[in-house]
Specification:
Layout: E1 3-6, E2 9-12, H1 16-27, E3 32-36, E4 52-54, H2 62-73, H3 79-98, E5 104-106, E6 109-111, H4 122-136, E7 140-143, E8 146-153, E9 156-163, E10 169-173, E11 176-179, H5 200-208, E12 212-213, E13 218-225, E14 244-247, H6 263-269, H7 271-283, E15 287-290, H8 296-301, H9 303-308, E16 320-329, E17 332-333, E18 346-348, H10 365-387, H11 414-430, H12 437-455, H13 462-487, H14 505-508, E19 511-516, E20 522-527
Parallel strand pairs: 1-10, 2-3, 2-11, 3-7, 11-18
Antiparallel strand pairs: 4-6, 5-6, 8-9, 9-10, 12-17, 12-19, 13-16, 14-15, 15-16, 19-20
Helix pairs in contact: 1-4, 1-10, 2-3, 3-10, 5-13, 11-12, 11-13, 12-13
């Protein structure tokens, strides 16, 4: 039988949103367990971020911040979540700064400061500082925990079931759960996410009885390394003024994006158009980043260039092959403004949540979202736990994860790796930057065959058991992306269909919601937009 641990609140995921939720719940007096898929403070996308937080302030009024966020979302944002973000941003970040988290005010928010010559991403500095606060507050943590299932008893959250880092089955029973697992960018063969960001939270939420929304909207970042023997990672901004983007014939293509003064302005203002153009150019023979005109002084002072200096490539004298990467999921779990999901006692925060960003995320809002929503979800979960009797039925509602023949250790056989690689390639080929009806149908047909192959995978060790669960979750999430993409017959924000290239407000100014019926079949429904509560008491 699985070991049962008990808490008031269990937080699943230890990126910025999860760390903030655990901190807020603990400060509200709750006994908290924090489950991290990898090392605490290092295994999520927050650790890989450039460290930019949007926040309202004297130089960035609430109305301007809200307008910018809604404009990026192309009319599909949940305005209640956008208003909550805008109103709460500055106070939440100032509170963290007062606790010693390294943050510096800017005109439009905050940044994580970095020293000249530093080759560490600012996000890692930030997430490690948050992790220290969490452990100092007495939050119990389980690094390396692989969550398999959100437990629900009597239509309420009851805890989480999964495997510890040592491979032991464990149930963390709690009357309140915060889901903060991040997004699903690592479901794509090309991505800049932490490797564990494969959409587990979306799948677990669906299976627990939650709805998802806006899953067709995946943001791609135009600038990612594609050079052989170099890691697949984002080429971080800021880009020096001398940076050029060259096609296979050596022509600078920046002007094809519009009249922009430099690459930074273009990537900031027309990121989706840039991803589409760069993808097409890559298919036509390749795309290259040329930094040969950058002076040596810039290489010493620009931290993004210093990150490139870690790699064995002569960036100063040789153009480097680049291509877009899957970057961020705008869609996710449907929540109310208090971060409550459709399941009582189950809260969600961060990228796993849908609604805030609409059709596209404004740059600088991801980290702010994690902090604001994480704090609200953590406080809400602590309050819920105080009002709810601890579940005594969690164990009876579970089934064993492991069969008797499984051995604790062992290498993963090639067939497990192959199925997951095929899943990631299918996401890129059929649910990528440019989509159309035939490709989406082919993707769905391929997934059906892949599900048959996945069903034949019989794990012999714990690594294979975790991999099979990841594959099953990934198949479900990719089905959601493909099916919602087929329904939306227009192009909007980060979503582009070559067979419906125009935005169509008369037909598609709506959200698409996804749920599971009792037989495990996806149910997709169009839903009306929420109304703004701006200026109300």
């Amino acid at each position: 039988m699985a070991e049962q641990l008990n808490a008031d609140v269990v937080v699943v995921g230890a990126g910025g949103a999860g760390l903030m939720a655990a901190l807020a719940a603990r400060d509200a007096g709750a006994n908290v367990f924090l489950l991290a898929k990898g090392p605490l403070g290092r295994a999520a996308n927050t650790a890989m971020a450039a460290g930019i937080f949007n926040a309202a302030g004297n130089d960035y009024p609430l109305s301007a911040y809200l307008d910018d966020t809604l404009r990026a979302g192309k009319g599909l944002n949940d305005p209640r979540l956008a208003e909550l973000l805008v109103h709460s941003s500055s106070a939440a970040l100032e509170a963290l700064k007062a606790l010693g988290v390294p943050l510096t005010r800017t005109r439009t928010g905050f940044i994580i400061p970095h020293e000249e010559g530093q080759r560490t991403l600012p996000g890692l500095t930030f997430s490690e500082a948050l992790a220290r606060l969490v452990t100092d507050r007495g939050v119990r943590t389980l690094p390396g925990f692989h969550a398999f299932k959100l437990l629900v008893a009597n239509n309420r959250a009851a805890g989480v079931q999964g495997l510890t880092a040592d491979g032991d089955e464990a149930i963390i029973a709690a009357p309140a759960v915060v889901l903060a697992t991040g997004g699903g960018g690592a479901l794509y063969i090309r991505h800049d996410n932490a490797t564990g960001m494969t959409g587990d939270g979306y799948a677990m939420a669906l299976q627990a009885g939650c709805r998802l929304q806006d899953m067709e909207f995946v943001q791609f970042y135009p600038m990612g390394l594609q050079e052989p023997r170099l890691p697949m990672t984002m080429v971080h901004p800021p880009y020096p003024p001398q940076a050029r983007i060259l096609d296979a014939a050596g022509r600078n293509i920046l002007k094809e994006l519009g009249a922009f003064k430099d690459l930074n302005q273009a990537i900031t203002q027309v990121r989706d158009k840039a991803s589409q153009l760069f993808f097409r150019k890559g298919q036509e023979g390749g795309l290259f980043l040329d930094l040969s005109g950058v002076p040596e002084k810039e290489w010493r002072q620009n931290y993004a260039l210093q990150l490139l200096d870690r790699y064995r490539f002569d960036f100063r004298n040789k153009p480097c092959r680049i291509a877009p990467l899957a970057h961020f999921f705008m869609g996710g779990v449907t929540v109310t403004p208090d971060m409550q999901t459709d399941v009582a006692g189950l809260f969600a925060a961060g990228e796993v949540v849908g609604g805030l960003h609409g059709a596209n995320r404004m740059g600088g809002n991801a980290l702010t979202e994690a902090i604001v929503e994480g704090e609200i979800a953590g406080r809400g979960a602590a309050s819920c736990a105080k009002q709810t009797q601890k579940s005594k039925t969690a164990v009876s509602n579970t089934v064993p994860l492991r069969s008797t023949g499984l051995v604790p250790k062992g290498k993963m056989r090639p067939e497990f790796k192959m199925v997951f690689a095929q899943l990631k390639q299918a996401a890129w080929d059929h649910a990528g930057i440019l989509r159309q009806k035939t490709g989406l149908h082919h993707g769905s047909e391929f997934l059906a065959r892949l599900e048959t192959n996945a069903a034949l995978l019989a794990p012999q060790n714990l690594n294979e058991l975790r991999a099979r669960n990841q594959i099953r979750n990934g198949l479900l999430v990719l089905h959601c992306i493909l099916e919602s993409s087929l329904i939306r017959k227009e192009s909007r924000g980060a979503f582009f269909r070559t067979d419906y290239p125009e935005q169509n407000d008369s037909q598609w100014l709506c959200n698409i919601y996804i749920s599971l019926n009792n037989s495990g079949r996806l149910i997709l429904e169009r839903g009306a937009l929420h109304e703004s509560t701006w200026h109300t008491e």
